[in-house]
UniProtKB/TrEMBL annotation:
It is found in: Nucleus, Nucleolus. Residues 248-259 have a biased composition (Low complexity). The lineage of its organism: Eukaryota, Fungi, Dikarya, Basidiomycota, Agaricomycotina. InterPro entries: Efg1 (IPR019310), EFG1_rRNA-proc (IPR050786). Belongs to the EFG1 family. One of its GO terms (cellular component) is preribosome, small subunit precursor. Residues 11-22 have a biased composition (Basic residues). GO terms for biological process: maturation of SSU-rRNA from tricistronic rRNA transcript (SSU-rRNA, 5.8S rRNA, LSU-rRNA). Pfam families: Efg1. It comes from Paxillus rubicundulus Ve08.2h10. This is rRNA-processing protein EFG1. Residues 1-37, 188-259 are annotated as: Disordered.
Length: 259
């Protein structure tokens, strides 16, 4: 019996292919070598390692390896806690540093302008003041990130906008401020920090301003499609323009007057 005589053959229904919702998900980025686990995970791993070392029946080779692991975990924990402390201080003192940076940069610019017209002893005095202000600016920009920030100006100056006068705080704060200032001055003399930090700060600000202005220009620029549509509308006789409308009104008025 031929297949045609037996009737039409049954075709299997087409099986729908399922699309996995995460099929097009980009692959995970590889973890950087310097990336550390969280503080809590490191503390938990360190506790487990210490429990293992507390066992008396632990083999010698396993004990040596576990002790190495414990030292590595201690170092990683110290680094992770330092990074967390650095992030917290960066958020906490951001506004204070921003205010003081503005104050010091403004004072540096004023001193530079005064130097252009100064003479004799006044020039030396202004140059010395300019050096101190540059040390203060590096103090703000490069203060140790894991230490509590000691402000250059009292809170009254920050809140009221009064003239920038050196703060008269506790002796401990003064000692810490003097130590950090001396460190900044030494690093500037060794060439590790810039001797004109206001210039580098200005260049960074200009770069960020340029990038913002370029983004705004791109957003404000009309697309080719919209410009083509505007051109087609302007050239269409149905829409006309203001001049055509004025001419038509004048012609209608003249016709009405003649009639």
């Amino acid at each position: 019996m031929t297949p045609s005589a037996a009737g039409p053959s049954k075709t299997r229904p087409h099986k729908k292919t399922r699309h996995h919702p995460y099929a097009n998900k980009p692959p995970r980025q590889p973890i950087h070598e310097d990336a550390l686990p969280g503080v809590q995970k490191l503390k938990s791993a360190l506790r487990q390692t210490k429990r293992l070392l507390a066992k008396q029946s632990l083999a010698a080779d396993v004990r040596v390896e576990t002790e190495r692991r414990m030292k590595a975990l201690d170092a990683d924990l110290a680094r992770a806690e330092g990074a967390r402390k650095e992030r917290n201080f960066a958020v906490k003192y951001h506004k204070i540093k921003f205010f003081e940076r503005q104050k010091v940069v403004r004072k540096i610019n004023q001193t530079k302008r005064s130097l252009e017209t100064s003479e004799g002893k006044e020039t030396k005095k202004l140059e010395s003041a300019l050096d101190d202000l540059r040390v203060d600016l590096n103090y703000i920009l490069h203060y140790p990130k894991t230490k509590r920030y000691v402000s250059l100006f009292p809170p009254a100056v920050r809140q009221s906008g009064a003239p920038a006068v050196p703060v008269a705080a506790a002796s401990d704060d003064n000692d810490e401020r003097s130590k950090v200032r001396a460190l900044m001055r030494e690093q500037m003399e060794r060439g590790e920090l810039s001797t004109t930090p206001e210039i580098e700060l200005g260049v960074q600000g200009q770069d960020s301003t340029r990038s913002k202005s370029s983004r705004k220009a791109v957003e404000a620029a009309p697309s080719k499609k919209s410009s083509r549509m505007a051109d087609s509308v302007a050239s269409d006789d149905f829409f006309g323009n203001d001049d055509d409308e004025g001419d038509s009104q004048q012609s209608e008025g003249s016709e009405a007057g003649s009639g």
